Amino acid sequence: MPLSRGTAEQGEERMAGDLNISAGELRASAGAADSLVTDLRPSLKKAVEDLTAASASFRDWSAGPRMEETADGWGTALGTLCDNLSQHAQGMRLLANGRDIMEQEVLDSFRGW
């Protein structure tokens, strides 16, 4: 059953209006990103190694150099992907920590009023 226009607009308003993300959610997301990197890195490394080995096997064929270029390109792209995920995880932790510090400073400012 398709959503009516009013329902879709209401959903967009709710999403646009609710920008609050708890520090716990940020830390959980950071942990999920770290787990993803930990789980992906060995598989991605093996895939690139296998492609590199295949390119070596076919080095005398016209496909060999192209396979090597593909392995290099994918190796760089997948390594960058993992690095970016790690950086995003660190950024989410820093954001959560900064939020905790800010909230504590606000509480301290109003203490005793």
Provide the low-confidence segments as ranges.
none
Residue share in β-strands? under 5%
Q: Assign the structural class, choosing from mainly alpha, mainly beta, alpha/beta, alpha+beta, or little secondary structure.
A: mainly alpha
Helix-strand sequence: HHH
Distance between the termini: 54 Å
* Biggest sheet features: none
Task: Please describe the topology of this protein.
Blueprint: H1 5-17, H2 23-57, H3 63-110
List keywords for this structure.
mainly alpha, about 85% helix, rod-shaped
Describe this structure as you would to a colleague.
With 113 residues, the chain is mainly α. It has 3 helices and no strands. Helix 2 runs antiparallel to helix 3. The longest helix has 48 residues. It is rod-shaped. The protein starts with a helix and ends with a helix. The relative contact order is 0.12. The model has no long low-confidence stretch (mean pLDDT 86).
Brief rundown of the structure:
The chain is mainly α and 113 residues long. It contains three helices and no strands. Helix 2 (23-57) packs antiparallel against helix 3 (63-110).
